[in-house]
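hey can u check if this looks right to u? its 702 residues, i copy pasted from the old doc so theres a chance i mangled smth
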Amino acid sequence: MDVKAMEALVQPRAVAVYGASRNPRKIGHAVLDNLRRGGFAGRLLAVNPAADEVLGVASRPRLGGQEEIDLAVVAVPAKQVQEAVRDAAAAGARALVVVSAGFKESGPAGAEREQWLRGFCKDRHITLLGPKSLGVINTGHRMNASFARNMPSPGRISVLSDSGAVCTAILDWAAARHLGLAKVLSIGNKAGLDEIAVLCYLAGDDDTGVVLAYLESIASGEAFVKAAEHISACKPVVVFHAGASEQGARAAELHTGNRPGADLACVAAFRRAGLIQADSLEALTDHAAALTLQPLCRGRRVAVLSNGGGPGVAAADALEKAGLKLARLSEHTRAELARVLPAHSAVDNPIDLLGDADPERYAQAVELARADEGVDALLAVLTPHAMTRPAETARAVARAAGGGQTTVVVLLGSADMLPGRAEFVASGLPDYPTPERAVAVLRAMVELHDWRNRPPRVVTRFPVNRRRVERLLLRQRRLGGTEVGEVRAKAILRAYGFDVPAGVLVTEREDAVEAAERLGYPGAMKIVSPDVVHKSDVGGVRLSVSDPEQVLDSFDLLTLRVQRHAPGARLEGLYLERMCPRGVEVVLGMRRDPQFGPILLFGLGGIFVEELEDVAAGLAPITADEAVQMLTGTRSYQMLARSRGAAEIDLDELAGGLQRISQLATDVPSLAELEINPFTLLGKGRTAMVVDARMSLLEQEP
């Protein structure tokens, strides 16, 4: 991103507002009024053919090249935007903010208007924000070129948003929490600046310490990940990605005309890039408060102190669910706590200060806990008892917490705790209404700390038979169709080092018996048809076939079922293979996302991956460490480890399977989808087996 190209947008010396109106109900009136009331020190011009002045600012029908401006804010009806933009360009405008709606989100005519706007600005090297933008705010320049309600106070948080309405909500939230903002950029339809360009700019912006991003779509997956990795290394970026559900996706496309990315792909991309993903707008602002006011956690060990036993227990539960843990306090710390606290206080973690805890008791406990080398973060809970003094306690905790160690506060209760909330905000301590929300913030901070301290990425390349795969795929293309059946899919996986049961394709009954005898019993028999993707849907599988008579019966039955349930399907034969030993069944897979490329998938059970509620996703290519983190971070793996014992789950075998799929997807760009279902783990030290598999190819070679 060219910083000079952004200067005209965020630090203009002269601004013209097209559509400036005397009517307070008009957007142009609000933009001009915000610029004037916000204290903008540069020159203001109003463009309105029906007025000589607006809000005390001289107005003209057009500038016509007689005035020189840096930034034009266009707030006229969509059909008049072209005329306004031409006039602004003639006046030397190097940046445009188009707040008008009625572009690609409105239909073909609007899309043509937007295409013209994009091309006009690109040809003249004009920085464009919008259309359908709320505007731009730079508190350091005392510029509010938006139609938001108020000018935020200066601070370290910058906001990037696809939605103007979300921008205004964040402005209100920041004001209520007494948190200042640096810059606000509402990118709207992204005909010019998109999230990638803005992230690149904010990475080098000295005023920005934390970035909040509300995104419904992403312009370019690869470029986005690169830009996000760059800024995450120095500044936390919290993202709320909307449009994940089917209805949300439709709403997002109607909102800005941009198609949202698939949610699993975005989750994988955000994790790779070190972004903190918020699962709600509430979480977006929760994370921002802590990241702005506190240093990152250096570890997962948390000390909890509370003036009640119940809230401490709730906090302990929340920590365990989040993958954090209660810090084990040293003998010295426990002894000192026992010395200064009342006799019935609990000095193990959680530390129970009892219901009559005064500010001094809180301060002593905080000082002792933060001095313990086994404590990485503090979580202080304050509940409303008759003896509670929220404001005084807040000041005492803030003084005792000092700096250098992450401290968050939970204020249970509402009106009675408001004095304490104001004191905590003033003292730089983020507060939350529940332990769960506070713990979610701590977890996000730990994960960002871990990401920044991760080892260098080294992607393993396994010895494989790529020529064999190329020949198999060439044969598939010649046969026609994009669905790669089980037989060919298993041959491809075998070429990439997967262990696949021995099997034979047969077309005659007698050949089936001979093949079964050679493979050994018990066996499995499956139909092979390019027209049947899911064999079980037509009853096309027989398991535990144990003698020649069952082989013949199964051959006849499976052939009949295909004729009955899929009468038009082409039957290439039946596939016989030796039954795989029993083990733990999981699903491994890959989906090629149009934005982010190959997305690796892991889930538990023998059902199709998108129907699982707990599916882990990772961006290819993947390292061994990333594969392990991807697996162990799921509820599926935790459930497996608890039910079978972690010692029985061959994590290396699972991670290796994901890495081999990653290599295959990277080597074969025409591979659209792959599913191994199930991938059977046979125990420590034993090679996992591919029991069933299918693949599909892209319609066109990339």
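The chain has a mean pLDDT of 90.
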